[in-house]
Design goal:
Oligomer: single chain
Number of strands: 8
Structural class: mainly alpha
Shape: elongated
Helix content: 40-55%
Largest sheet: 2 strands, antiparallel
Length: about 290
């Protein structure tokens, strides 16, 4: 079986500087589980790696390839966060009950949070499958391209106030989010405990638009079933949210936390797109 040194030598011979850099990035991915973007950032930021890489590309560089291999293996074994941001690009964190103290001014902004409701189907990258939630899931918003909204380059924009899940993760030690399953998660009722109006609205909304019913109706529509029930729920959701905003003053971002994601967003997660037909009537299309 080829050693890391063998792979670096082969890459250097076959493709020169570009090949050696690509092989180094691949090595960090294989040894540490770092994604390509994170490995490239580490290669650029780690002075020792840069020195070995430059030496390997210079005159008589073959003699420095062993040093580069050793430096890569040493970095991959380091028992500390390398700042590669791989975990931050996978998804945003889920909040737990003990994170409540972090929410608010100077910590985790409330407008940066949203809720997934019981019954909604979600995808777990760790488990590699979809499943229905049995309780609230409060998350930080994701950036447009995916990953955590507060990822700035390869740095955390709220590191001092990062949630429990982020503090717990240690890829080098095999610590992952699944090991927190026994801890109570943060809920919408925790976040609005001091707002009786919000609690009443939350309860009424969940009765009229249960997450499980939304998921079932949208899934049936996505599989070619009658779209009428899905359209009716979309209309009901729109009317409820507009009424809550007008009468009680909760803006859309706050509603994303209080009531969960709008129905059209949930529909999109099932592969449905809301549009207008040739006569200007709302319709759903699948596979978008």
């Amino acid at each position: 079986m080829a050693t890391l040194l063998d792979k670096l030598c082969a890459a250097h011979r076959q493709a020169g500087a570009m090949g050696l850099e690509a092989a180094s990035i691949q090595a960090l991915g294989d040894l540490r589980g770092v994604d390509a973007a994170g490995a490239a950032a580490l290669l650029a930021a780690q002075a020792e790696l840069g020195q070995w890489l430059a030496a390997a590309l210079g005159p008589g560089g073959d003699n420095s390839l062993a040093g580069l291999a050793a430096a890569l293996e040493d970095l991959a074994r380091r028992p500390a966060c390398l700042g590669c941001a791989t975990c931050c690009r996978v998804s945003s964190p889920t909040l737990y009950a003990e994170d409540l103290a972090l929410v608010g001014e100077g910590g985790l902004p409330r407008q940066a949070l949203y809720a997934l409701r019981p019954g909604e189907r979600v995808y777990s990258a760790r488990l590699g499958r979809h499943f229905a939630l049995d309780g609230d899931l409060i998350k930080l918003r994701e950036a447009a391209g995916g990953g955590c909204l507060f990822l700035e380059g390869s740095r955390c924009g709220l590191y001092a106030h990062r949630p429990l899940q982020c503090r717990h993760l240690e890829c080098w030690a095999g610590r992952h989010a699944g090991q927190l399953e026994g801890r109570p998660r943060l809920s919408r009722r925790d976040l609005f405990a001091q707002d009786p109006t919000a609690l009443a609205l939350l309860g009424e909304y969940d009765l009229r638009l249960p997450g499980e019913e939304l998921a079932q109706v949208f899934q049936e529509a996505a599989q070619g079933g009658d779209p009428a029930p899905a359209l009716a729920l979309l209309e009901l959701d729109h009317r409820l949210r507009a009424g809550i905003a007008a009468r009680y003053g909760y803006p859309p971002q706050e509603q994303d936390l209080l009531l969960g994601r709008p129905a059209w967003v949930v529909a999109r997660a099932h592969g449905l797109t809301l549009a207008l037909d040739g006569q200007g009537r709302p319709c759903l299309s699948a596979g978008q």
